[in-house]
Amino acid sequence: MCCSFKSLFFILFLLLMPGSAALWAADLGAPANSGAAPMPVISQSDLQALQQRLDGLKQQISAANNYNQLEGPQDRVQAFILDVDRLSAALLPQQAQLAVQLGVLGTAPDAEVAAEQADIVAQRAALAEQKSKIDGTLKSLAALKQNAADLITQIAGIRRTLLESELTLSTRSVLSPYFWAPLVNPSEDDRQRLRLFVEQVADVWATVWAPGERFYTCVLVLLALLIWTFGRRLAERGLTWFCIHRVAEGRLRRSALAFASAIATFITTAIALRLLFYACTRHDALPPVLETFSEEFEKVVYACVLITGLSRALLSTAHPSWRLPAIADPVALALKPYPRILACSLLVLVTLVQVANATGMSSHIVMAGRGVISMVVLAIIGTMLLRVGKVRKALIAANDASASNSMFAGLIYSVASLSMLVTAIALLAGYVSLARFISYELVWGYVVLSGFYLLIQLVKDACEHLFSPKHASGQALKQLLGVSDRRLEQTSILLSGVSRAGLMLMALISLFVGGIGTTLGQLVTNIMSILGGAGLRKLNIVPAHLLNALLALLIGIWLIRALSRWLDNEFLPKTDMDPGMCASLSTLFSNIGYAFVILLTLSSLGVQWTNLAWIVSALSVGIGFGLQEIVKNFVSGLILLTERPVKVGDLISISGVEGDIRRINVRATEIQLSDRSIVIVPNSQLISQNLRNVTLGGSAQGVASLELMFPLDIDPEQVKQLLLDAYHENETILDKPAPFVRFSKLSPDGITLTVTGYVGSPRIVGLTKSDLLFEVLKRLGAAGIALAKPPAA
């Protein structure tokens, strides 16, 4: 498995290397029909059709009179931009090819130069004409895209204005019979719009139920129902079997089971909806009203499916041991029916309101529908909160330990209760749109928090499993990168933390940029528009470069570590350099290598260095205030590693600290004292202060000197010879320079003699002096010579 993992890693690296696409393209060779005619250019009629399509979207937007009616046109404008991008992308290779061909032919020669052949002149003219047409088409497409982008901005402003006006709009209270009058007795215009909607539905049904089409319609509808019911159960069981038998036992299996349950529900529902849509549109496209309604109905279905699917995955009442959140079994059983009731109610009620929006019924009908939705959501969620509170009180009364509640769960319960209270007050006061908005946001908040909670747990458990040395993936990474178990654990924690932080950020953004009826594509687009704002666009960071950057970082770190081990274990030990020089070279190589890897990673991200001026400016301000010491120590560390006034292994003395240099880091140097303790000295002090390097040059000798005071009545020559004999007979005292005795001082208290000898290293001076003192005292005692007594104080 390790070999296959390495091979896959290497292949991915080759495929993602800069220029690899060119290598693959070169290997495929040129097309055989290189002389064929170029691909046709988009005609003027196509551009006119795009312009008409954009004008139609503008008319729909201008005709919208409420917030929800702008959701469909906004999606269609985004689809329009994608279509324009695809057309532009299809023309860019042709433009580049024509430019290359014109460059080969060159410009037309001057009149003085010999005339060209007629076929070359004709070919240049034809190519220039084709390129001119493509350039004009690309400019027209760019203008259309810019107009559509401006329209998206205008839609956002209109939706914001409509939302503010709707939320502050005061109507009659839901207790007033006049509020419900439009539903009981709708106006003739509303009746006519509803009849038109029903007629269009009947026309579509007549088309799909025509003789000869009934069998295919029945098959498609029946297949959709089977997938939605039995298919969901089968997919969920299949994914459950896979998680139980193919995922290692532990937390990852539990989170995978919950995720499998949710994803099976969502995917099977999406397939069923696609089949139903195909059954209705396989011959003719839907009318504009039904098309708008179908788009909004699909969004509502997805939202309701997420409510039920996520609730089933998180509550897991059938298998309590699979439950991810810490919810007591009685509480989970009490919550079980409410998500399905809420989803079914929203599906029916919101669909009816979408009919009113799609057909353009009066605002009174729409407002009454919103009131019904708000009241139903209030009743369902309020009943659920009361039921859960009652169950928890019973558990607390029974002293059940599972009744303990986390702060986050208590916060959710409080926010939901407060939201329902505000919704009730708004309905009674006549602010129906505000009540509907709060209800929708509460449901949307549940969907977002539940979905991202599931993703966060899955990512966390996957990181712990992937980098665990107990599993095959962790063992493969350990062997490939040559890292220890501790490094794997640190990598797991780091990736898990970064992933969870990113998911939490996206969840926070999703709470504010989405809502009931927001599709996954819209949500991703909104998130990327925020995360990939002007700042990231200036840096040229795009999601497609993230994998390249990750591979560059991992492979670069692996190469630096491998080369460092090769230098330390194979190359440097076979050179004539001393160990200190070897350690300095290894450290310098690692620092330069890691800096190069960081630059390579930024380049793989697509960062343009010309756009990093603001980073340099920010760093200069930071250096001026708080980072100057760090930068000074960093530069001093580079000087120490290159100029080498001190090196690893030297015995130095600075500011009263004396010891051996054990390591020179980028910021500070580690000095080991005689008691084996470590003193960390900033590198700048080693450069700027007076420093005593005892072992500079590698041949420094130590001095073992003893100063002894004797009485005045001794024989100085006898004592001198005794001291010299003790020094000469000591094995560590060098013969050259020879030991000597110096008459240091003569006073009424006695005679002071100093004996000096040299040893091979300053590090053995202390031990040598101790041995010499023992030997000198022994010989003095044998000779009957006593040391002078210090004068009385």
Annotation keywords:
single chain, elongated, five-stranded antiparallel β-sheet, alpha+beta, Methane Monooxygenase Hydroxylase, Chain G, domain 1, 793 residues
If you had to describe this structure to a student in words, what would you say it looks like?
This protein has 793 residues and is α+β, with helices and mostly antiparallel strands. It has five domains: 43-108 and 116-167, Up-down Bundle (Methane Monooxygenase Hydroxylase, Chain G, domain 1), CATH 1.20.58; 177-523, no CATH class; 540-611; 613-697, SH3 type barrels (Roll); 702-782, 2-Layer Sandwich (Alpha-Beta Plaits). It has 25 helices and eight strands. The protein has helices at residues 2-16, 20-28, 44-63, 71-105, 118-167, 177-184, 188-208, 214-246, 251-281, 288-315, 329-335, 337-359, 363-397, 407-429, 432-466, 472-481, 485-513, 520-531, 534-539, 546-571, 579-605, 613-643, 683-688, 716-729, 765-782; strands spanning 651-654, 657-664, 668-672, 678-682, 692-693, 702-710, 740-747, 750-759. Helix 11 packs antiparallel against helix 13. The termini are far apart.
Strand content: 5-15%
Class by alpha and beta content:
alpha+beta
- Name the overall outline: elongated
What's the assembly state of these chains?
single chain
The overall average pLDDT, rounded, is: 78
> Tell me about the biggest sheet?
5 strands, antiparallel
Strand order of the largest sheet: 4-3-2-1-5
- Computed CA radius of gyration, to the nearest angstrom: 41 Å
Alpha plus pi helix count:
25
- Write down how many β-strands occur, each being a DSSP E stretch of 2 or more residues: 8
Stretches where pLDDT is under 50 for at least 5 consecutive residues are 1-38, 530-539
Number of domains: 5
Helix percentage: 55-70%
Euclidean distance between termini CA atoms? 84 Å
Domain Mechanosensitive ion channel MscS C-terminal: 709-786
Pfam families: DUF3772, MS_channel_1st, MS_channel_2nd, MS_channel_3rd
Keywords: Cell membrane, Coiled coil, Membrane, Signal, Transmembrane, Transmembrane helix
Subcellular location: Cell membrane
